[in-house]
Amino acid sequence: MKTFSTFAALAAATSVLAAPSPTGGLTPRASSSIVPITTKGNAFFQGDKRFYIRGVDYQPGGSSKLVDPIADAGTCARDIAEFKKLGINTVRVYTVDNTADHDACMSALADAGIYLVLDVNTPLYSLNRATPHNSYNEVYLQNIFATIDAFANYPNTLAFFSGNEVINDDKTTSAAPYVKAVTRDMRQYIGSRNYRKIPVGYSAADVNSNRLEMAEYMNCGPDDERSDFFAFNDYSWCDPSSFQISGWDQKVKNFTNYGIPLFLSEYGCNTNTRKFEEVAALYNTEMTSVYSGGLVYEYSEEGSKYGLVKIDSPTSVTELPDFLALKSALAAQADPAGTGGYNATGGASGCPAQSPNWDVSGDALPAIPAGAAKLMKSGAGKGAGLSGKGSQNAGGTSTGTASAGSGSVTAVATGSASSSTSTSSGSAKSAGTQLQPMDRAPLFLGLFVAGMSFVGATLL
């Protein structure tokens, strides 16, 4: 993304897990009758109706003035009025304070028919693409689980992003197993805490050499490891352009038969004057068999010339030319009738082969850290908010490779979620760290499994 990053390399941290408390199964907190979004095949649905994301990325202040935009009722009232003028149904927020009260804003968004797609990371609590093994630890997972707790019971929480542009070139693809492990862990936590099935996926950079590999990787392997959706940030359509000139026709072709929902988590090239001509293609049947809409970058002007509005005060904004252009483009292009030619069957992809552009072999993932596995039953407890000591070098990392099925909700109940055995012949690599399968000697393996069963029982 252009002005906001949740993956800064930060100083070592020694913070500890907050005391956990049960949080699942609560009554939804937003008062509106808004219908929660579900997935089927490669599409989102609002009840029985196909749902297309028509939204904007929303983080007033950007990375230079980090604030939670949905923790302030006044800010929300100001901006929701503009959202309604635009005719959008979704906002993406990159960072929130998971200790704040979001009831007022989430209820106001729901009353306006607007859903939230939320990134669970913060600059202090995120994966580090350079040292993914160290940053994938129990302190980090505790904090993102606390963010899930804070938003899972709002019916207009559409989805969670497990990460944003962690892999941004060919050299950082070795971090992919950790992105996928976080996605697996979030899905398992949601199920284990008896929340409704909120989709979890990843927002990828639009890297030509590994875009398709990343999408396939997030949708390959056992069901408990696969994402619920995949999204990427795409600035390849720069007005004046077309479906063919932009290369979007080839992207549709490449993702034909992809088995989970796909959408644009950022779009809106500003190389030239933005007319948002791509809207007419994105919500047309030439794309809706594969894509489920997208989010325009970005709502407020933060110095990079992508803003739709200029924020003047806590109560007022000035609508910029891009606001009017997007409003007109969205109004002119209705969603297709029916289900838009979606792939109702869905299904898993094959895992991409290792190559110079893709430094991952197979689908072996790191096992969830033991301390984080316990939170599946006990709950995450209090989050760190926008402060805290950070997590990237906090310790409590993964100690091995996950066994098949260890990310399922059933695995938590039987105590196997903390297993570090492996049934895969592949290995997952981090930057400088190889996750190796355990010793294959039959006698040792038998003793090891028996021992781990005992340890799992005592931990859980």
Automatic annotation (TrEMBL):
GO molecular function, one term: 1,3-beta-glucanosyltransferase activity
Record flagged with keyword Protease: no
Pfam family, one: Glyco_hydro_72
Positions of region (Disordered): 384-434
Record GO cellular component, one term: side of membrane
Annotated Low complexity bias: 389-433
Localization per Swiss-Prot or TrEMBL: Cell membrane
GO biological process terms on file: fungal-type cell wall (1->3)-beta-D-glucan biosynthetic process; fungal-type cell wall organization
Membrane in keyword set: yes
EC supergroup of this enzyme: transferase
PANTHER family found in the cross-reference section: 1,3-BETA-GLUCANOSYLTRANSFERASE GAS1, 1,3-BETA-GLUCANOSYLTRANSFERASE GAS5
Function field: Splits internally a 1,3-beta-glucan molecule and transfers the newly generated reducing end (the donor) to the non-reducing end of another 1,3-beta-glucan molecule (the acceptor) forming a 1,3-beta linkage, resulting in the elongation of 1,3-beta-glucan chains in the cell wall.
Family: Belongs to the glycosyl hydrolase 72 family.
Listed name of the protein: 1,3-beta-glucanosyltransferase
Species of provenance: Amorphotheca resinae ATCC 22711
